Model the fold of this input.
Amino acid sequence: MNQENQKHNVFISYSTRNSDIANRICYLLEKNGLKCWIAPRNISSGKIYIEEIGDAIRSTKIVVLVYSSFSQASRYVNNEIEMAYSYNKPIISFNIDNAEPRDEMAYFLKVSQWLPAFPDPEAEYETLIKDALHLCNEKNDAPILTDLTNYQEEDMTRHKKDYLSLILLFTPVYWASFIYMGLTSHKRLWTVMGLVYLIPSIMILLLEFEVMDFLFILHAILNLFILIFFLLWAIAIIHGILIRNEFLTRKSILRFTFSDEKLFEYLYEEYIQL
Done:
């Protein structure tokens, strides 16, 4: 197979809700000699995401769409298929559920090669590989390989872990959890909330060490701030749990991008669902 002038043969379009099947397809296609482009694996840091997607689709031989109700609902998948259609790229639609294309997707897929794979996608992998090889004009006299024994699942959820923020949340310095989450995920609001949660702690320390004793005559004021401290602590725990998935998603996708807002938006919208 000559790939010197071809960076990849297949562009794989899919919703991250179907990433398990998409990554298996990528593994098997490459095992059978077809180089694939798949996000987020092939996303390059420092490049404009929209342009990179366009270049990847423009330079591919074919597009394999993992079609499902989730990909139908994904505006990013819809955009990718629209680009593939505009570049006259052959599209294999690998249908993994019983959803029917609607609206613009139905229009773009009207000339695609439709491959029903519901309810058992694995049973149709061999057919998909044969069709992909044929459309790529790749001759392959060797047996089609569909063995997934050595396949290692690419699971983005493994990156969505952070225990320090959770530990801090359940300690008296719970405010530090929000400052930490804000700084590591580039969410300024959370950093500000951490500083707000810090105020009762500062006031208690000032009162306890009589730094501001001349301003607070009544001992009840100290008790009031202690009550506020524990009340905000309870609120912070609830708040921290509610935003935890957003925090983990933001932190994990910042591994791929720091300045490309379009890329961040794409990854965030897709991976917040995981």
Summary: The two ends are 37 Å apart (CA to CA).
